[in-house]
Amino acid sequence: RHTSSKRLTHFPRSSAPAQVVTQAPPTIDTAARYNVVSIAQQTKEIRDRLCSSHVAGGLLYVEAGDLVLRNGGDVYYRFRPQSDFAYLTQCDIPGSAALIDSESGRFTLLVPKLPEDMAFWVGPQPSLDDLAATYGADSVAYTTDLAAVLRAAGKGRDVHVPSSQPTAAERVVAALRGQIPSSSAREGSPGHNGFSSADGGEEAGQW
């Protein structure tokens, strides 16, 4: 039987309790190291690139879309905003819209005004100033004020609307005319060259 010639050294077990040494992790300035920017800043850069490269002046109007009823009278599918709207704003409020001035870059967010008693069911709603800070909007108004917002942006300017949102184009035209779109108007096709003319020289274009 083979035995090792090395002797094992035994160390006496210490009776003192083990001490745990804690050290704070190093501080890393993540924003500076990885050039992290806020969502609001990212969407602003996207809007600026879009307006400078693809929109030939005028205003750009995009809608988020509405809730889709699933069953009953108040049960809806989970809301997902239209891709164009989400890409430009990152806002996920059903029924909202965005008006972007392609020349100045000014971004106006339009949101639906809920009845005051809705707070009982969905909780308190953020103020317009809170929404402006959250989404980086220059101003926030209610969707019922669309006509006033369009006219304040400048009479006679073209209003461009995504071709995937024909209802939005009809809504712009109706707002400029002071009318409410009828069902036939919503189902109709735009005018020649992809534009629907409105009173006062304004146009709702499709891009």
Q: What are the main properties of this structure?
A:
207 residues; alpha/beta; seven-stranded mixed beta sheet; 8 helices
Question: What is the number of helices?
Answer: 8
- N-to-C order of helices and strands: HHEEEHEEHHEHEHHEE
Number of strands: 9
**Biggest sheet: strands, sense, closure?**
7 strands, mixed
Oligomer category: single chain
Q: Indicate the mean pLDDT.
A: 80
Name the shape in a single word. Answer: elongated
Unreliable segments of 5+ consecutive residues: 181-203
- The secondary-structure class comes to alpha/beta
Helix coverage percent of residues?
Answer: 25-40%
Strand order of the largest sheet: 6-5-4-1-7-9-8
Q: Compute the gyration radius: what is it? A: 29 Å
Fraction of residues in β-strands: 15-25%
Distance between the termini: 91 Å
Quick recap:
This protein has 207 residues and is an alpha/beta fold.
Mind explaining what this structure looks like?
This protein is α/β, with parallel strands linked by helices. The protein has 8 helices and 9 strands. The strands form 2 sheets. The chain has a 7-stranded mixed sheet with strand order 6-5-4-1-7-9-8, with helices on both faces. Strands 2-3 form a two-stranded antiparallel sheet. Strand 2 (69-71) and strand 3 (75-76) form a beta hairpin. 26% of the residues are buried. Mean pLDDT is 80; it is low at 181-203.
SSE layout:
Blueprint: H1 30-34, H2 39-54, E1 59-63, E2 69-71, E3 75-76, H3 83-89, E4 97-101, E5 107-111, H4 119-122, H5 128-135, E6 139-142, H6 146-152, E7 158-161, H7 166-177, H8 183-187, E8 195-197, E9 203-206
Parallel strand pairs: 1-7, 5-6, 7-9
Antiparallel strand pairs: 1-4, 2-3, 4-5, 8-9
Helix pairs in contact: 6-7
